[in-house]
Each structure stands twice: as structure tokens, then as C-alpha cells.
Amino acid sequence: MSIHMPCRTHRIRRGMLTVALATCMGAALVSCSDAESDGAGRQAVSPAGDTGLAGLAQKAADTGSLGVIVRVDSGDGKPVEIAKQAAWTKEDHRIAVSDRFRVGSNTKTVTATLVLQQVAEKKISLDDTVEKWLPGLVEGGGDITVRMLLNHTSGLGDFLLTPEFLPSLTGQEQRTWTPEQLLAVTPQQESAPGETYSYSNAGYEALGLILEKAAGSDLAELIQERITGPLGMKDSFLVTNTDETTGKQYVTGYEPDAERLKAILAGTVDLPEGVGFAGPERPEDNVDTSAIDPSWSWAAGGMVSTAQDWQRFQTALISGELLPEAQLKQMRTTVDAPEEGGGYGLGLMRVDTSCGTVWGHTGGLPGYSSEVYTDASGRRSVAVLTSTNFGIKEKKAATANKTLVEAATCQMLGEPQPSGTPAE
């Protein structure tokens, strides 16, 4: 699963780092960062296309994003590929566009696709209750449907915001969690099933279990057999332990150290001294979070991929290659989700940008933030991967990162990008 953070105004004062983990951990395109507002005017994209984008990527890296991979595919067979990083991070790893990356909650779109394939095969109904598939495992499961889990209207809380799980999230505790254990520590329902949108990673843990029961196969095997294998996504897989995400072609992730983290979250939560992410100390008050085990995220955010691989998946999905028309239409039927910048369908976000509407998802784990979108046809796509998550919550870093994502998205859509430059 990936860490997903609704906007700052939505869940304030729940206590300690748990509140921080529920605050603005999502997309730069969604206006819930501390970024300064851009002007409403437009400026033409340079004829070379990637020249201006490369400058914005380096600016973002130097301003706090640390490492940035940008890939824009306009459907003409000539993708723009950019990899930039802060100078000191080259000692750890020199980033390439083809590097593997933890894509976090983007995994939810894969899980949803697999569920909808089972729906098309009449093995699962969107109106099936959780209790039918997972008897006694989810409180109130008799009133929660598969559809509600997919579009986050189940009313379920989230185990991320629990004292039992927090030490594992920050890497202070090494523990292997099963989906059943995560569901057991998930708080009681925050709202009645079907009432309102409320993002829940726990819901996708339940979906993973339902999917395995319906298909009679392990989730990792299903992903390989039905998604990554057929699409030739050779650098994409579901993580089952930390060792799978280390190696030569893997991006190093960073987060601010405890002191910086406390300052970043000031005004949102009073973080106790010394509470932060575990990992080796790095320059400029950063911590290397690459060794934090992400396998607990499983069906909600456990995939590793590359920019090109994930764009290949999303373009295949939106263009109708992976689902029948009826199921794709259901996937793109959204509920209001202002904190996501538009709406949320069945494992798929609709984001209304300054240059047009895009479809995709965002992801965030300690050290990793990602946004991958397509146009409505699936012909064009854009990926922006950033090697920090909390690090782009500082004002200047947020502004630079948001500007980069907006410029890359506008270029993908063939539209002039918004005016405005990152704060100096």
C-alpha cells in the first residue's frame, strides 16, 4: 500500500505522527500542498519540448525533490525522458529514467483491474458483500460491498493511523504484517457504508484477499499472469520483502530527519522530539529510507515498477486493452473526491488539471512519491517520480514539484503550460 494523505484541512489533530501521515501525502497536481498559487496565464512550451522541462526537473531536485524521473509520452513514438538529482545524492546512486521505483498506491489501479476482470468473468459481483467473501474479518462487512471498497466509500478507517502499525511504517520496527493482521488493527468505521468518499488502504487489503479467493491464485502470480507478463512489464513486480527492492537499478529514497520533519509538520501536529524515519543519515538533514520494508503495503501499494512500465500499464488500461468496455466504464464512474483534485472511480483517479482532465493515480511511501496519468483515450501518458515524500511538503520544494508536474502534464496533453516559476 502506499501512504496516502488527504488534504491538510480534512483530518487535523488526531495525534502525533499519525496525523502527519494523514496530511497531504498525495499528488502535487492536487492543491493540498503548501505550494504558492501559480498565475492563471499561459506561456508557450519551448519548441524543443524537453529543454524547459529538464530545467524545471533540476530546479525541483535542487529545491527538495532530491531525485526526479520525468517521462512524457505524447503518443508520437518519441517520448521525452529526463532524470535529474541533487548533486550529493549521486554518491548513493546515479538516477536513470529506467530505474525501478516504489510506486505505492498506484498499485490500487492494478488491484482494481484484476477485480474487474473477475467481475467480467462473473466470479465476483460489485454488489457482493465483504462478509460473503471474508466472513468475520471486517467489522460491518455485511453492509460493505466490493464496489465500496474499490471507490473508498466503505466507511472503513485506516490502519496507517494506529499506534500498533506506526513503528513499522517509520521503519523503527521490523515486523512482517499479514493483510488479516492489518485489518484487525483497522479502526472502526468513520462513516456509514456508501455515504461518502474516505480513502482507506485497509479496503484494498480486503480486496486483495477477496481477489485471491475468487481467482484461486496468489496476488503476485495474478499480477504477473494477467498484467505484467502480457504487457511485457519486465521491471514490475509485487514486493514480498525488502530484499526485492534493493540493487543497482533501484532509486534511493529519502525523508527529512526527525528535526526537519518536526518543522515541516509544525502547525499541523506537534511531533515529539526524535520521532522520525529510521535509516542512515545523509547530507542536508535527510535520512535514507530505502531499507524500510514496504511489503506490508501489498494490494494497496506494494508494487515496484519503472516510469515506462507503469505508463505502459495505464495506457493499456485506459485504451481498453485490459478490460471489457462495461467494466472500464464502471472503473471510470467516479464519486466526488475534491482532495484528489476531481473524482475517484474504481481504483482510478480523475484529476482536473489546468490543462485538461487526466486519469491515473498517485502513490507515496517513505522516500517515494509518484504521479502517473493518461489522457482520456490512453494514447498519451506522463509519469513524474520523486525520491522523497515528506521532503516535498516544505514550501519551496512543494512549489517546484507542483510546477514540474503541471508542466509535464500540460506537455503530455499538448497544451501550453501554466505560467509561473518555482519560488526562489
Sequence stretches where pLDDT stays below 50 over 5 or more residues: 4-16, 18-51
Largest sheet: 8 strands, antiparallel
- Helix-strand pattern: HEHEEEHHHHHHHEEHEEHEHHEEEEEEHE
Amount of beta strand: 15-25%
Helix amount, in percent? 25-40%
* Number of DSSP E strands: 16
**Approximate shape:** globular
Strand adjacency order, main sheet: 3-2-15-14-13-12-11-10
Mean pLDDT figure:
87
Distance between the termini: 34 Å
Structural class: alpha+beta
The total of helices stands at 14
The radius of gyration computed from the alpha-carbon positions, rounded to a whole number of angstroms, is: 20 Å
Structural features, described:
The protein has 424 residues and is an alpha+beta fold. Helices cover 31% and strands 16% of the residues. The chain is built from 14 helices and 16 strands. The longest helix is centred in the last third of the chain and has 19 residues, at 395-413. Mean pLDDT is 87; it is low at 4-16 and 18-51.
